[in-house]
Amino acid sequence: TLAPPGESLRRFLAKLSLLSLPFSCWPPHIAGAMKFLDEAKVYIRSGDGGNGCVSFRREKFIEFGGPNGGDGGRGGNVVVEAVDGLNTLIDYRYAQHFKARPGVPGQGKDMHGARGANAVLKVPVGTQIFEVDKETLLADLTEIGQRVVLAEGGNGGFGNAHFKTSTNRAPRNANPGQPGEEHWIWLRLKL
């Protein structure tokens, strides 16, 4: 390695104050030692929707309760965002699985479930996203701040309060949440 024995390469470069310079300005013998990755295969999965709830209002002095099961929340999306300050896909060399959070199930008292958190992949500008066959182009991120949703989260299921009608006043059914999407994709950086 380039660093003296017992010292990490990052600490050695910080002493030389090279980390504050752009990668293209580094001396060739140091720049060649740093990893540069222009292609990465990544697994993405959006969140499942939360299940609906079967619940009835039951209080001591309330004569007519009725159904009050809430709907489940939507699952989180998988989003790719082009950001400034990155020039390589080295972050996706070892962390290759990205999963969004599922939606929270509904509860009694007409409480709807919360939406699942999104999984955001930050990539440099100029990144192209391909399907697993490496030929079908899904997206081309050419501007800073550009965002593309690659996998939509599943819808939340309806609770039994959603199914009440004038003829069916006490429905005992609720929907399960829909499953999320999952894919393998290729990220390729245009040089």
Summarize the structure.
Helix content is 6%, strand content 24%. The chain is mostly beta strands.
Can you describe this structure?
The protein has 191 residues and is mainly β. Helix content is 6%, strand content 24%. The protein has helices spanning 9-15, 28-31; strands spanning 39-45, 78-83, 97-99, 119-124, 127-131, 137-141, 147-151, 182-189. The chain has a 5-stranded mixed sheet, with no helix packed on it. A hairpin with a 5-residue loop joins strand 5 and strand 6.
SSE diagram, text form:
Layout: H1 9-15, H2 28-31, E1 39-45, E2 78-83, E3 97-99, E4 119-124, E5 127-131, E6 137-141, E7 147-151, E8 182-189
Parallel strand pairs: 1-3, 2-4
Antiparallel strand pairs: 1-8, 2-7, 5-6, 5-8
